Batch of 2 targets.
Target 1
Amino acid sequence: MTSTEDIIGRADANDIEAILAVTNTDVDSVLHAVKDNADCLYTWDYSKGARPQLEKLYEKAKLGQWNGETDLPWDTVVDPLQEATQLYSQAAGLDQMIDFTGTGLESWGEKEWIEFNLESQAWTMSQFMHGEQGALVCTAKIVETVPWIDAKYYAATQVMDEARHVEVFAKYLDTKLDRRYPVNAHLRMLLDDIVEDSRWDMTYLGMQIMVEGLALAAFGFMYQQTEEPLLKKLLRYVMSDEARHVAFGVLSLREVYADLTQAELRERQEFAFEAALRMRDRFLQQEVWERMGADVSKVLPVIFDNEDRREFQHLLFTKIVPNCKKLGLLDGGDGWLRKRFEEINVIQYEDWIDTAEEVDSFAIQRELEGEDNPLVAR
Ligand SMILES: [Fe+2]
Ligand SMILES: [Fe+2]
């Protein structure tokens, strides 16, 4: 039987020292090579619409295209310090929620917590940008590896979507926040694992279900929180694409996973659990604390153990858990993934709406205007 150590390289999923030991050691390198180990599949079966739901998504995606340069109000003046200060006035510092006695953070006042908010925003947007490049690469791989023509067509639109997402996050970081962070080591390990896997459905599972499912929830929180008009519109547009992407994963994999053996299903469950832990661990924002001069060996264990923060973090799984359930991954075989999701306290979202059902609620106006296209309306 595969152990937690086999899956993520440590026996205890909550071993904070082991989590902190994973760091990005080549932050100055510009390129990062990964073997993608997959066969490129041609199909000579060009029957468009053999999978009607994928065809519909493809038509919606064509209507939902937008231009990151011209559709967003880049002339908006953004003052990141003012944004960070406003956030502080709404929510105060983490010290209002967590007791930092003995960590060195007792001396932090308003100035430091506002600075932390500023760095945290840049870190979060940077990880979004790196994750978006992961999505760009993975979707290009799906175009090559998926056997169905409807999925190749749809994935091709997603490649364009993801290029646009990388572009707008990079532009926001460079022109509005004026600082950025390298890729978090947990996130990079996850992206590497997804790209390295030779099986085409694992690209979908890792990227469309896990990474993009979490991104959709995370973008939603930031969208609710921010009053900054450029960022709000940027996130609104990105979310309209992401909802289609997650729905693409759910619709494609449901068909495949219905026919898997118990052993094959278990491999997918383990992969989903690994991805869940890696994403959870990156949200410790280790690099932000380091840049702020905090002693991470003292601060992060206190944060990691704080119940209120964990509760909030679990909300990031509101899309992932119902989508895994819809794919039959929660209860497939002996229900292995259900037990793991119980252990990390995210199982309570299992009956929330899945993304294949809610995709239209994210649509932007031009997609909705396509309702008179019979392929979209059905
Ligand atoms: Fe994206
Ligand atoms: Fe996406």
Note: The chain has a mean pLDDT of 90.
Target 2
Amino acid sequence: MTELLHSPQIYGERSIVRKPAFLCHPPERVFPFLETGMAEAEFFRKLRQAQLDRLRELRLALHRAAVHDIEEIESLVRSRYDRATADEISPFDSYRYILFGQVLLLRDATGRLAACVYEAGYDHPDRPSYLFRLIVRADMESLGLGTLLNRLSLALAYERGARSRNALVSLDNPRSLYVHLNKVGSYFTDLLEVQLPGLANHLVSSRPITIETVAGNLIDDQKSDAMLETGAGTTGLKLVHTQDISMLRELMRHQGYRVVAVARKSISVDGAMLILMPTHPVPAC
Ligand SMILES: CC(C)(COP(=O)(O)OP(=O)(O)OC[C@H]1O[C@@H](n2cnc3c(N)ncnc32)[C@H](O)[C@@H]1OP(=O)(O)O)[C@@H](O)C(=O)NCCC(=O)NCCS
């Protein structure tokens, strides 16, 4: 029974993966409020405040969704997914997350819905927070809202008592992979191979919520892009395309590699190049 409760298939690992420092931003560059020896609770309080300050600058209003918002959320969903995928996304999910989780909405100055994020906590020893849906209106993309809502929901989940963060991201969605990996510090611990309507191959993210995993794992795009030119060389890292499922399966499931970054320059309609690191020690070169 205990084993079932701790199934790595569900909530993944408790160990902290630190991405290679030579690919990452110094944490205080991204979070100027970060101080040496800062208490974790203080960090997450300041992280939340920084996102709220940014929303004020952007003149966007934040509120928790209510059941009467569902119709508008459904329109946002339909505007961002093709019909077959949108048809698989149920308004009932919205209803459940509104009642039993946290659904945050952003509205622009005219009151129009600009973005949403869904998150819920689970009754499990790891106190996981599961990020379920993140959508930004097409004309509001690239303003940093996807990153902002992801960080905000992470800070709120921490304050509510969550201690691990979990998400599924489609291998066919390099832009979302980019936000999760490079901007929010996630890493992917497992591969979900499945071909069902509305659920294709995904990467599984599972990580403890700590200052190290949130602030210390943010990718410097120039450095990850440079690896495209030079190759992984003697770093011990691997570069694998999102569509190379057999290689991802081999490295992630059989050799203990984790996906830690994406080369931003490589993102195209056909996918992107992922950067993987081993969890076992790499022989010195
Ligand atoms: C995936 C999605 C949520 C990303 O939202 P977004 O608001 O565009 O994401 P962000 O702006 O935070 O991050 C990505 C972009 O912001 C840029 N950016 C934002 N803030 C930045 C900063 N402070 N420094 C550098 N770059 C920044 C990134 O470089 C990137 O820019 P690009 O568009 O030029 O590549 C959005 O594209 C979307 O809704 N897609 C459809 C639905 C979907 O697929 N959802 C995900 C399901 S898991």
Note: The two ends are 44 Å apart (CA to CA).
